[in-house]
Amino acid sequence: MKKFRRLIFFFLLPVTAVAVLYFFLRHAPVVPVPPIAAHTARAPQKKAAPQLHQRGIVLTYEVYAAGFEALDATLTAAADEKNYTVKMTAVTRGLIGKLFRWRTTAQTTGVIGRKSGLVPRQHVETSDWRKHAYTMTMDYDAAGLPQSRVLEDNGKPMKSQPLDPKLAAGAGDVLTATLALLQNVAHTGKCAGSYPVYDGRRRYDVTLADDGTSKIAPSRYSIFSGTALRCHLKLVPVAGFTAGDKKRGWWAIQNYTERHGRPPTVWIAKAKNGMEAIVRMEIDSAYGAAVANLIGERPY
After folding, report:
1. Which of 125, 136, 279, 288 has the maximum number of C-beta atoms within 10 A of its C-beta?
2. Residue 113: which domain range?
3. Model confidence band, residue 159 (pLDDT cutoffs 50, 70, 90)
4. Torsion sign across C-alpha atoms 199, 118, 19, 60
5. How many structural domains are present in the chain?
6. Separation between Cα atoms, residue 138 and residue 119, nearest integer Å
7. Cα–Cα distance for residue pair 95/198, rounded to 1 Å
8. DSSP 8-state assignment for residue 195
9. Which residue, among 293, 197, 275, has the nearest Cα to 237 in the 3D structure?
């Protein structure tokens, strides 16, 4: 039983690593965008016509859990003067991949206003697990408020609780919040800020705390070496959580790291094209650490 629990925990670590990649692996948008603040109604906007993205990046990562190859992850992000797109894909690899075949994708598309900031139009998450293909689609109005949330399992509709306007007010999807967060890092040169997220069921804050800078030594595991910002990451539950939610997944590991004084940490530095990027991530646990390293970068 003890060995089985350890195996399950090895699987949980890369899942947590995906969560961190999902929140923070992206580039800074072309237009300066302030952090997401309290929601204010905006006049309806005409839907922007699709345009070719003029600036973007594709980042690839390898994630190891307790020394074992666990995940391959790719982050594609792009923006022009009016639109932004962020897409993250991850798939289990190595022994963990053979035991637990899992693939997940998340993508947000939206518009950029010089005064209104980032406004999501659609957020889609997919997860392939044990012959099930789960999909969650959230569509937003011109003011960035969610209008619908559709869940599907292998194309068949699933039950979903109604959207809560009170929880949704002032909060964005997780990738849009991430764009605002790293934009703030780019502007201030420090890790700071708290940004609200609503996933259609739960409301939480994504926060960063500055821990100075540190040097990352050259390594065959990463293409990055040099000085990077060192940031502590925390997700703060606000509403919509059950007692069980706080005892599993990311929340369980975060609670463990807080008890032992080793908060989840990400390192942020500029990519070769000048965009901000996560170059390393580390999450400690009772069985070792989950570590993500940047292994590839190319223009979008």
Report:
1. 279
2. 2-299
3. confident
4. positive
5. 1
6. 13
7. 34
8. E
9. 197
